[in-house]
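Chain A, query sequence.
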Amino acid sequence: MKILVVDDNPKHLAAADDLVAAGHEVVRTDEYEKAIKLLNEDAQFNAILADRSMPAEPYALGSTGLKYLGHPIDIGYVLLIRAAQVGIRYGAILTDASHHDDPGSAAIDWIYRDMPITINSMKAFIIHAPIKDGRKDWLAVFNQLLAS
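Chain A, predicted structure.
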């Protein structure tokens, strides 16, 4: 399958090698704007796996939001919705933030119960990332998504 992986943390982005080793084609980016452009092109992705929170870029902020430039914002949700709009079949938003420190991450506890949600016809997860060797385990999440 062709999978788009979006994360601003280089070690987490590199962990997508596990998906490649499992035989998937992986396109990686650490920028929201580039991810949106990839989703707007006819890239034919089967899945998107994205970080929940990434540094704000001008493209995502509008003229009054520029004061948040570089600050973390919950951009993963926007990417998941856009992916569902263009017909991507599988998606997941992952966070590695401690739910004790981050309100956006803590809110996930209220909705996540090991069950996917459906957005249009996309099967999706919004979850705390399993960590393997200090990095997000994208492959475990993707396999769980396919099996659900």
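The radius of gyration is 14 Å. The chain has a mean pLDDT of 85.
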